[in-house]
């Protein structure tokens, strides 16, 4: 029963975070054409690493590429600041733009998180998306009042990664450099 309560608390936290961050930040025009949001993005990790400056950093069970425009904070500030399976990357110039990386218990857990994100943000026109960056990432992207948001997951070996982001396009070079470093 205790495990179910923790899972429900986690799902509630994810849902609340999605709702709170959905309208954060300002959308920046990056010059992409409308065809860039076709639902699929690709690029190898080595191609991305050539255009994004930064370095790999480790927190707990996670090692991730941190673009030089971002800073990393470990843990889940909401429930457990020492959580070794969660970290946050924040834009140095606009802290409301973030990427949250979490190792979740199972692929089913990740899919449930994606479904929750879709249902909570249905008024923003969520779109199923995939990204190839070091592996295949699946999830949902939407635009919340001018702010690009997304939730993605991927399985790499025995780890299932779940990503939430606000203020970044799901297929941007910065996001793809982070995703590619996890697989």
What is the compact description of this entry?
The protein is α+β, with helices and mostly antiparallel strands and 183 residues long. It contains 4 helices and 10 strands, in the order αβαβββββαββββα.
Please describe what this structure looks like.
This protein is α+β, with helices and mostly antiparallel strands. It has a single domain, classed as Protein Transport Mog1p, Chain A (3-Layer(aba) Sandwich). The chain contains four helices and ten strands; from the N terminus they run αβαβββββαββββα. The strands form two sheets. An eight-stranded mixed sheet has the order 1-7-8-9-10-6-5-4, sandwiched between helices. A two-stranded antiparallel ribbon has the order 2-3. A hairpin with a 3-residue loop joins strand 7 and strand 8. It is globular, with a radius of gyration of 15 Å. The N terminus is likely disordered.
Which terms summarize this structure?
4 helices, alpha+beta, single chain, two-stranded antiparallel sheet, eight-stranded mixed beta sheet, Protein Transport Mog1p, Chain A, 183 residues
Shape assignment: globular
With strands numbered from the N-terminus, the spatial order across the biggest sheet is 1-7-8-9-10-6-5-4
Order of helices and strands: HEHEEEEEHEEEEH
**Rg computed from alpha carbons, rounded to a whole number of angstroms:** 15 Å
Q: For the terminal residues, how far apart are their CA atoms?
A: 33 Å
Q: Which bin fits the share of residues in helices?
A: 25-40%
The CATH topology is given as Protein Transport Mog1p, Chain A
**Major sheet attributes:** 8 strands, mixed
């Amino acid at each position: 029963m205790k495990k179910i309560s923790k899972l429900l608390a986690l799902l509630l936290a994810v849902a609340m975070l999605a709702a709170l961050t959905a309208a954060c930040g300002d959308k920046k025009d990056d010059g992409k054409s409308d065809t860039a949001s076709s639902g699929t993005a690709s690029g190898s990790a080595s191609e991305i690493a050539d255009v994004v400056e930064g370095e790999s950093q480790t927190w707990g069970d996670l090692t991730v590429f941190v673009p030089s425009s971002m800073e990393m904070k470990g843990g889940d500030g909401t429930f457990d600041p020492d959580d070794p399976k969660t970290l946050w990357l924040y834009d140095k110039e606009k802290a409301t733009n973030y990427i949250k990386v979490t190792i979740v218990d199972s692929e089913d857990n990740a899919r449930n998180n994606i479904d929750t994100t879709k249902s909570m943000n249905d008024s923003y026109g969520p779109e199923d998306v995939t990204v190839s960056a070091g592996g295949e990432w699946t999830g949902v992207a939407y635009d919340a009042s001018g702010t690009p948001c997304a939730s993605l997951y991927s399985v790499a070996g025995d780890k299932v990664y779940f990503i939430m982001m606000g203020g970044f396009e799901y297929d941007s070079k910065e996001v793809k450099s982070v995703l590619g470093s996890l697989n």
